[in-house]
Amino acid sequence: MDLSSINPVLLIASIMVSATPILLAAIGEAVVEKAGVLNLGVEGMMIVGAVVGFAVAVNTGSPGLGFVAAALASAILSLSFGFLTQYLLSNQVATGLGLTLVGLGLSALIGKPYEGMKSPTLPKLDIPVLSDLPVVGRMLFSHDPMVYLSLLLVVVVWTFLKYTRAGLVLRAVGESHDAAHALGYKVVRVRMIAIFFGGACAGLGGAYLSLVRVPQWTEGMTAGAGWIALAIVVFASWRPWRVLIGAYLFGGVTVLQLNLQAAEVAVPVALLSMSPYLITIIVLVIISARGAHGAPASLGRSFHASS
Amino acid sequence: MIRLEKRPQPSRFWTGATPILAVLLTMLVGGAMFAALGTDPLEAIKVIFWDPLFHEQFASYSRPQLLVKAGPLILIAIGLSIGFRAGIWNIGAEGQYIMGAICGAGAGLALYPSDSALLFPMMVVAGALGGWVWAMIPAVLKVKFGTNEILVSLMLVYVAENILASVSSGLLRNPEGMGFPGSRNLNQWDAASNLDLIPNTGMHWGVVAALIAVIFAYVLLSRHIQGFNVRLTGEAPRAARFAGVSPSRIILFCLGMSGVLAGMAGMFEVTGPAGKISIDFNSGYGFTAIIVAFLGRLHPVGILLAGLLMALTYIGGELAQLMLGLPGAAIQLFQGMLLFFLLATDVFTNYRVRIGKGELA
Amino acid sequence: MADALLTIEGLTKAYPGVVANSDVSFTIGQGEIHALLGENGAGKSTLVKMIYGLVKPDKGTMTLNGTPYAPAEPRVARSLGVAMVFQHFSLFEALTVAENIALGMENPPKPRDLARQIREVSETYGLPLDPDRVVGTLSAGERQRVEIIRCLLQNPRLLIMDEPTSVLTPQEVDILFETLKKLRSEGTSILYISHKLEEIRALCDTATILRLGKKVATCTPADTTARELAEMMVGASFAMPEAKDQPLGDVLLQVSGLSMPSPGAFGTPLRDITFEVRAGEVLGLGGVAGNGQDELLMALSGERTTKAQCIWLKDKPVGNLGPAARRAMGILSGPEERLGHAAAPNMSLTENAVLTAAHREGLVSNGFINWGRSRDFAQKVISQFDVRTPGTETAARALSGGNLQKFVVGREILQRPEVLIINQPTWGVDAAAAAAIRQALLDLAAQGAAIVVISQDLDELMEISNRFGALNEGRLSAIRPVEGLTIEKIGLMMGGAHDMEVAHV
């Protein structure tokens, strides 16, 4: 066992990298759920984002384009979920699962030729002055742009939900679609936009996995990240700042267990690698034992104007 | 303008017709996808749906495979459907399947090289128990704390996969395997193997169990008060409480049943077609069974048919890989599309589609 | 009237099978509190919906401030100065007061300005309310204030209030009345819908009384006695209840000190409820909706359990038993909500028969359902209670409300209960069927069952009950024999004046 091989600066830096894909997916899903829609297809949208982002980046040589394409691809995929659940009134749980299965299949199909390839990765964006600070500079201010974008997204979502009229309408739709409808708001339209946004975020998260975090394409590489993003939304009680905390805590656990594995700590490897999932379960239990705080009241319910 | 009007009661015609419509739509869109991949779509459809059963050269091999693949799918889907009927979403059957295999095989291997006739039945019980315990975790957490069973059961899949990786290179590793990961091959140990009951039919104990499960579920749901309570809970939770049904007991029952059946499926698989515990033992049956359950309209007989159809796409997919060079993932996508189209067309079951201007509701 | 604000002339609205309003005319003056009085189903809601633009009249005209007024939708009504506070609030529980108010406004000001305006209005009118509070944490009365303030911020000339006091405590009623009087003094007119006589006499300048969709009279309530108002409201048909002289048997159901917390945010807690019912007796429990009726039914049916000693069937404590066990012993019940509570909407009538009759009718043996017998039982309910349906395999949701009600009531009665508790047995049922259901309840009592009927239809309760009590905020008034009860006394009991006549008892 050699704990001294763990470098705290690199540890914090890698926690940020490890948390970013889940943060992106979770902040998008938080908006979707705030609008009253439960999209369990995050895993499927993420992995489609991962493969599309990777393929586009490899073919164009531009990881930036890869991210844009990933966001678009997953957002378009999410619209199929939106169409089924919002217009055809299908069950949201089943449709979300279906989306995940479709996404897994689709990504494996697209990704076959790209296995084993290397993609161009995002350059680091050293923030002037700050990145030159000792220790903290390398820890916090010398990351790729997506890390900062994900943090910015949290701020934007928080501001949007808390301070804008559109955000208020979105929350109202998620609370009581009947009352919102009675006041003249377009429930289905609001929800479709939210679903689209959630899809785009999941796509960015997936692309971050294949372009930065790993960076490679392997089949099924999301390995439950989408599901963990869903759990983090519950953990966060649907609040953007707590989504951030949840994602970073989870990133911390992941990185820590990888570091411990590398340091050959006398804990079975299997236990370490299952720890993120176990901790997710434990967190879910603690949150639910305290009572479900903040779940949008219309979450997961179909809206049909005549009923 | 197109609008939907709720039917006074679900359409019987559409309940039966939507799966067929969904299959046709999947063939249509899947065919287009195959064409895009540079394969003749008609040829591909024929290879997937026709050749496994009737091809001169391959059918003798692939026909038995139909039962081998359908067995676990049906067994798991039956269990899932009982829960889905009650609105309880166990989507971690894959994990219960793995734990059933580990416990079943582990219980047997602990007694190696016994040749007792009781060994195999004991392994079946151990497998069922393994799946049951794994499903009881989300069940108890839901009853005690109201924790979301979807996320917990799903997380437990990943935990089970890690346990699988660990035991196949540790606890259950073949001591005579020269250090390679993976357990002893159970097929080479008569007392613990689950081979075809009738040679070359694919008919192993797992298939028998699946058929029994279909009958059991049919009787349960259509004749027994417990099955009635399950359906009532899913249809109208408040009415169920009024009738005196305890929600907690329904949760424990439904998750328990699906755990037992998924665990047994894993056990039959590891002792039969798979032969041993290894790191890549699980192949996604637990997830595909979700499609089977929905495609079969959560009805036992429907699930039987849907399981056979889904097994056909598995084998046909392998055949298409072999004969047409179609990627294996195409079949996975094909199966996912099937569920999507089913959910989409289901709208006809509960709603009437009206075209024209109506009163805005 | 010289300074009329809203004049209504000959308003008529018919729905298939029902004439909700027929040729109704009256005038609301400037700065007047005008009561609209009538029983449930008298046509008050429809009339108000026409004024607010939710429903279009078939015939008749309205004039607002001298100009023709025919709002196509509520938005138009609001822009012309007509605002409405609903009986069932359409609020978002997880949002704050200010957010809720902003959502209901066409062009809300900036959040900070809005919060200031809310504070101003709430102080001016004595309606204390913090704009930053989350609505879910507010009491029913405070929620109503949210709606009132939402209306007041738009400076209405006519404020419509639909049964505003049905959800308020007496203290909150006093506050509300002060507010309304202040509004009147500023020239705002109020259309006040209620069936509470004392309230109207205390508050309103003018009253228009509706019965069966027609205007009976417009009068000055201060100059009219409660009894006269009551007679106009219920019509001459209100016969003084007579003593029912059938012999009563032993006490079958006894409830003592039953208290239960509220089941949810919108529920009512039960407070120290005590009563008993004898064999052959019908106990009628009245009260304004939402005063614990649903909760009492769930406590008696066993859906929510309590201490064993709170509820007795003869000499057996049953308070801790669930619905199935109580049913087996002979306590049967029928909830108010038919679809989703008393019956499963998508299941067939046969299956819905099994829902409560499984054990008493022997439809299940060794856990297996005998579908043949179940169908027979469903068929028996259908034929004896004249349920109009194509057959036993029809889904419950395909039946009309009245037919499903007959099925649900019949299902319980045919199981020969010892004690039957039923909530709103004839709600939404046509007159002939309602009479048949009441007769069936009386016959059941005559056979020696003890029956508790919870209802908001006072005529019904007077017709079939031996004794009467009223629920108010989860409390039960003293129980009185129906003979000698007057409508005033009933009104007081429903209003929660528990000890009104201690001297008489």
From TrEMBL, chain A:
Keyword Ribosomal protein: no
Keyword Membrane (UniProt): yes
Lipid bilayer topology: Multi-pass membrane protein
Domain of life: Bacteria
Main location: membrane
InterPro entries: ABC_transp_permease (IPR001851)
Pfam family, one: BPD_transp_2
Name this protein carries in UniProt: ABC transporter permease
Organism in which the protein naturally occurs: Mesobacterium hydrothermale
Automatic annotation (TrEMBL), chain B:
Membrane-spanning parts: 12-37, 70-88, 95-112, 118-141, 150-172, 203-221, 250-268, 288-315, 322-344
Protein localization: Cell membrane
PANTHER family in alphabetical order: ABC TRANSPORTER, PERMEASE PROTEIN, GUANOSINE ABC TRANSPORTER PERMEASE PROTEIN NUPP
Keywords annotated in UniProt: Cell membrane, Membrane, Transmembrane, Transmembrane helix
Highest classification ranks of the organism: Bacteria, Pseudomonadati, Pseudomonadota, Alphaproteobacteria, Rhodobacterales
Pfam families the UniProt entry points to: BPD_transp_2
Record-linked CDD domains: TM_PBP1_transp_TpRbsC_like (cd06580)
Protein name per its UniProtKB record: ABC transporter permease
Keyword Transmembrane helix tagged: yes
Organism: Mesobacterium hydrothermale
Principal location: membrane
Topological relation to the membrane, as annotated: Multi-pass membrane protein
Automatic annotation (TrEMBL), chain C:
CDD domains: ABC_Carb_Monos_I, ABC_Carb_Monos_II
InterPro entries: AAA+_ATPase, ABC_carbohydrate_import_ATPase, ABC_transporter-like_ATP-bd, ABC_transporter-like_CS, P-loop_NTPase
Any matching Pfam family: ABC_tran
Coiled-coil residues: none
Domain ABC transporter: 6-237, 253-498
MF terms (GO), sorted A to Z: ATP binding
Signal peptide: none
Keywords recorded for this protein, A-Z: ATP-binding, Nucleotide-binding
PROSITE patterns per UniProt: ABC_TRANSPORTER_1 (PS00211), ABC_TRANSPORTER_2 (PS50893)
Name under which the protein is recorded: ABC transporter ATP-binding protein
Organism listed in the record: Mesobacterium hydrothermale
Lineage: Bacteria, Pseudomonadati, Pseudomonadota, Alphaproteobacteria, Rhodobacterales
